[in-house]
Amino acid sequence: MTEHELELCKLSNAQLPPYELKRITKLVADTKRFVEMYSILPYMREELDRDFGGFLEKHGLNVDPEGMMLLAYEDREDERKMILEAPNKEELIPESVYRFQQFLANKLAFRDRMIDELCKPVNKRMSKWRDRQINRSLAGIGGINKSFVHSPLTIELDKGCSVGCKFCGLGAGKLEKICRYTKENGALFRQILADAHELIGNAAGFGTLYLATEPLDNPDYELYEADFVKEFGFIPQITTAVPDRDIERTRRLIGEFKTRPGYIHRFSLRSLEMAERIFEEFSPLELVQVELLPQFPEAPSFVPFTVVGSQAERVKKEDIRDMDPGTICCADGFVINMAERSIRLITPCHMTDDFPNGIAEPVKKYFDTADECAKLMREILEEYMVTDLPNDEPLHLYPFLERCMTQYGDSLKSRYGGSIFAIDKLSRSYAKRLIALLQEGDHTRYDIVKIIGSEYDAAPQDVFWLLNQLWKQGYIYDSRLFGQRIKGEGTI
Ligand code: SF4
Question: Could you tell me the pTM of the whole model?
Answer without folding.
Answer: 0.91
